[in-house]
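Hello forum,

I keep getting stuck at the same step: I have a sequence, I want structure tokens, and every attempt I make locally crashes halfway through. Rather than fight my setup again tonight, could one of you with a working pipeline run this one for me? It's a single chain of 125 residues.
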Amino acid sequence: MFQLSKVETLIAQDQKFLFTLASYVTILVIYINLNAFQYAVLGIVASILYFLINGIFLGHAFFDKEDTFFRLMFGGLLLIMLLGFVGWLAVIIYNLDATRFTVVLFVVTTICSLSNRKVKYRNAT
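Reply #2:
Ran it on my machine without issues. Output:
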């Protein structure tokens, strides 16, 4: 049976950086799809997976006391804000094309993963 709280706990624990690596792989899939295939379904699936993983990371890092649904929603909103901010910086520095968009995703994923790790170690001590 599919339960959101079990999936959220599994992703938030991120044993051996497996979900961070999965997020980086989705970035690679998005980049290849933008440059070569341009399949809408592939882009949608990769984007949903990217938002799910990183939204859970941020939700766990900043909204640990909230209910699972609210953690996911608030984490998703924070992810959108972070993507917008880093994307805005990229636009200010230089035009945002597929390669720079991929760099924005990479930077945001790294921030999300490190935020999740910081909370994990803070709660362990």
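The mean pLDDT is 91. If your local run keeps crashing, start a new thread with the error log.
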